Amino acid sequence: MSESSPLKITELVLRDAHQSLLATRMRTEDMLPIGEKLDQVGFFSLEMWGGATFDTCLRFLNEDPWERVRKLKKVIPNTPFQMLLRGQNCVGYRHYADDIVERFVKKSVDVGINIFRIFDALNDLRNIETAIKTVNKCGETVEGCISYTVSPFHNIELYIKMARQLTDMGSDIICIKDMAGLLTPDATRTLVREIKNSVDKPVHLHTHATTGLVGMNLQAAIDAGVDMVDTAISSLSMGTGHYATECIVAAQKGLPRDTGLDLNLLEEISNYFREVRKNYAEFESDFKGVDINILKSQIPGGMISNMENQLKEQNAIDKLTDVLLEVPRVRKDMGYPPLVTPTSQIVGSQATLNILTGERYKLITKETRECVLGKYGKLPASLDPDLLSKVEKDGKVIDCRPADLLEPEWDQVVKDCKGKCTTEEDMLSYALFPKVAIAFFKKRDEGFPPTQKATAPTSQPESTPATSVTPIAGSATYTVNVNGQVFSVQVSAGGTPQQAISAPIPTPEAPPPGPSLTGISVTSPLPGSVFSLKVAVGDQVSKGDVVIIMESMKMETEIHATASGTINSIQVQEGQKINTGDNLLIIA
């Protein structure tokens, strides 16, 4: 495509814009009335699915995410629908077996998704192979992503190599995904130009406004011949979000890259979403300005502000500078992973632990350990030897594609869903989020309650988690705050984790325990619900045995016996909601 061709626009208002600014809480009912006008604009595509929207529909909004696509397609029949797909993670938070990924992609096509933007947090392209092949087979469009970051091991040559690999893998479009807003005008110009000179594919730029350079970056990309750019309608733009659609349209008016889009129509759409935004005021991000420090620390702006607030609450605000300096050191030790979900959370949590404990890697989280062991994919650079030696006590580093270690899952999903749901869509929802899906199915069967504004902590966008850590009772248990949500992390000295990080589900307090029994009580290290009981009264257990599996905000967590003995009492049941510190069982 020549530099005189019209610039194409992907509008983000139905997905990343409200994910970045309103904690992904926009309901389908607030999207449908403006659908006809959105369809009239002539956007290259509407990004309206994927990322955190799938989980949020089930968990918070009492909406079927599959139905959202169908409803919107009826009122927006002409504009291609685009989604963000996390490669082997689909829209979840772990690697799923290939059969799940294939079915998810095929069903997404069935309901109306046309363009799949596919990325991997570590730029390990093995983790997106299955998704790309499946989209190709379905005859839809693949946007293969380069997750942009800056380090001694990330440079133009590497990104050009990735662009060529993505092309060879079957990508129809190459997307530069600047999730943390780290691009500068010169870097943008060079990257776009060199990729276009190296591959015969359109180039699409996604970037955020956090550093304040976004307008200059987009103009540099346009001058270098970028084919498509992401923007968000002005009433849901800037801050941790994106550049305003109208600004780009106005800037190119009458020029060779004129978008041809109607500013009057865009104004009508902006006015509509300005009113809609008021419905979600409680979810507004606290970060609304510019933070140029991101270019030095590479910590997303929301992450910095949240760290500051949490450290104030612990009377440790004097540690903020130390934590900010520690994040790049941890990132270096871990092989320079790009800071995007989930690696930004992993690195930020570990850095804060290092500072608050006064000793680097005295305590190591489960996620840090698994990342170092290759269970998220291949890290970009070599690991710190001391960190590696501590982590290797728990296993050997794998060098295969992580999903190669997974057995097919679909047949088991079908068995698990018997009597709970019947459609393939529901079974896929269950495969990705078992506990959340079951709760959703139950509420759907009973009839959803009237729409209410949920009360929940404001979160930052998917790509910019904010993390801080507070020590709580016991030398090896910490509270980790990510995007305003409290996580409990239990780790042992020397780096052997006892509990995974798990986020809370707002729950009522558990009923009081039964009569007091003698023995050692195993208490809950985090709020959530009991996913399954692994023991019964009278069973013999050894210290460290798994006794309960809890489910809490997107992942399962094993609860271990704190002593050897006999299970004297179980004080919870499967499905019960519990809070941190609640008694689970007693070992005599």
What would your notes on this structure say?
- The structure is a single chain.
- This protein is an alpha/beta fold and 588 residues long.
- It is built from 20 helices and 19 strands.
- The chain has helices at residues 16-21, 35-41, 53-61, 65-75, 98-111, 129-138, 156-169, 185-198, 214-223, 245-252, 263-277, 294-297, 301-313, 320-333, 343-357, 366-372, 385-391, 410-416, 424-432, 434-446, and strands spanning 8-11, 45-50, 81-85, 115-118, 141-147, 173-178, 203-207, 228-231, 467-471, 477-482, 485-490, 520-523, 528-533, 540-541, 546-552, 555-560, 565-570, 577-578, 583-587.
- The strands form four sheets. The protein has an eight-stranded parallel barrel with strand order 1-2-3-4-5-6-7-8, surrounded by five helices. A four-stranded antiparallel sheet has the order 12-19-17-14, with no helix packed on it. Strands 16-15-13-18 form a four-stranded antiparallel sheet, with no helix packed on it.
- α7 links the parallel β5 (141-147) and β6.
- α5 (98-111) packs across α19 (424-432), α14 (320-333) packs across α15 (343-357) and α19 (424-432) packs across α20 (434-446).
- It is globular.
- 52% of the residues are buried.
The helix content is: 25-40%
The main sheet orders its strands as 1-2-3-4-5-6-7-8
Number of strands: 19
CA-based shape: globular
Average pLDDT, rounded to a whole number, is 85
| N- to C-terminal distance | 73 Å
Over the alpha carbons, how many angstroms does the gyration radius reach? 24 Å
